[in-house]
Amino acid sequence: MNPPIRSLTVVALLGLAAALLVAVLGLPPAPVKLAGEVAANLGASGVSHPVTAVLLNFRGYDTFLEVAVLIIALLGMLAAGLPPPPPTGSRNAMLPTLARLAVPLMVLAAVYLLWAGAFRPGGAFQAAAVLAAAAVLLHLAEILAPWPRDRRGSRLAIAGGFLLFLAIAAALLANGGLLRYPPEHAGLLIVLIESGLTVSLAVNLAAFFLLRAPEEQR
Amino acid sequence: MSAGLIYAATGCLLFVLGLGGVLLLKALLRRILAFNLMGSGAFLVLVGLAQRDGTPDPVPQAMVLTGIVVAVAATALALTLARRWHALTGRDDIARVRDTGRRVRRKANERRKSAR
Amino acid sequence: MSTAFDLLLAAALLWSAWRTLATPQIGRAVILFIVFGLLLTLVWARLDAPDIALAEAAIGAGLTGALLLDAVAALRARRPDDEEPRS
Known about the structure:
heterotrimer, A: mainly alpha, two-stranded parallel sheet, 2 strands, B: Helix Hairpins, 0% strand, elongated
């Protein structure tokens, strides 16, 4: 990019920054208070933590599509095709020991985060992230080998959460609106969906590191 | 000035910083970093503006949670593509590439010949 | 008092973001990006958003940082380890 266009871009960006700051700092107070609406309907949502209620009940459709986006990203990565990394061959005694000590605690923490999401900050995404981090730690300690692409178990695990969500959504669609949980069963449905999502998202996030194309055959 | 407004303004500046990085930097990895900065800036604006009167608002918080997970998926895909590009052409930028097809095919042929 | 802390945190956030893009070595840039992610976690905690803080620490700083470090190592290899393996 030649210098005149570069300086022009910088000037334009500074102008954009100024305009955004003026717009953001000069906004009048909001006419709609969504926090109040959420608090009013929290009793019928099945959980008592407002963010979880929004994520899995009021805006459950967004979460549903987000899981699909993650699967599509994984498919894109598999299509681009990275072969598995070569083993490093380093004999590090600390890392496998640390991994073996830390991973059971991480699994415990993940299960707690999943369960606590109903009434406290936590939830499926945080639990899935901790589980995926545990898998990556095991991979770095060379306890867990990279997964070949065609193993059925990992495929089922990744698709399973989304399919569970889809099945529940389809069943509810037959009954009424899309993802409109009946209030007396909402808590149970949310726990079910969250458990499926945790496992599925954890495998998906770990697969960003671990799922590789198989070695080229001779 | 409330905390929400301070961080919303910070988010605007981060967004513009990231945008400048994507437009003006050459290396692919740096542009991916800059793109992530743009995303984080947008999240700050979303939550900061909604909470500019001080009360926590769960709806934009849930949206940002979704956004963070989608951002990591997009980053993972972008990094895979960048690594693939580097493996095929040996470059880490996409500036001024002419006739990528011929270059990629030539390199693949060379590799196939040397592997025989 | 808390406004001063907010301003300091915002300044640290912007500074680490600027240094991420401006530092010459790419490895250092990724480390600075992880620092940025952790500072952002503090910002989310300041904004009464503990769920986002948990997710940002685990996913934004942790998993994204690990992905980036992996990519930096792969892009730096003299013979990139992402080539098709020779038979």
